[in-house]
Amino acid sequence: MPGKRAGKHFSQLREFERGLIIGMKTAGWSTRRVACQVDRSECAVRNCWEQWTREGTHARKTGSGATRKTRRREDRKIVRQALVDPTVTLSTIQADVGVAIVPQTISRHLAEANLKSKRPFRVLPLTPEHRQLRLQ
Can you give the residue ranges of the Transposase Tc1-like domain (predicted)? Predict the structure, then answer.
């Protein structure tokens, strides 16, 4: 497709680009002409202009999602407990942290710290020597 801009469609507008868009649209430029000038999609230009006319601001909105239940200090405490005692359970960590969090939060913090559960072997793996002796 000749009119498609690869990669630019999904990247977010910088503050400077937002100012350019608003200035050009205020000067009477068409959406298509502004989009070509700032090398962004017409949809991005239209959304920026609509936000400016609706709210009077071009600032980006804060991110969505749930608010954090733990602070950095509590995150470090979770990881430290798992490092000190590898056999500690999620419910024990949950009780020690002192904040109402779900076990998935603890698991996610441990995974971010590259700590994974260590399950013991059910049986020891056979070495080539063991296999040979067993076949005999």
Answer: 75-136
pLDDT tens, residue by residue, 45-58: 998 899 888 888 77
Using alpha carbons, select from 76, 24, 72, 78 the residue that is nearest to residue 49. 24
Cα distance from N-terminal residue to C-terminal residue, the chain: 68
Rounded to two decimals, the pTM is 0.44
String of DSSP letters for the chain: -TT--TTTTTSPPPHHHHHHHHHHHHTT--HHHHHHHHT--HHHHHHHHHHHHHHS--PPPPP-SPPPSS-HHHHHHHHHHHHH-TT--HHHHHHHH-S---HHHHHHHHHHTT----PPPSSPPPPHHHHHHHH-
C-alpha span between 38 and 43 (Å, rounded) = 13
Biggest CA pair distance of the chain: 90
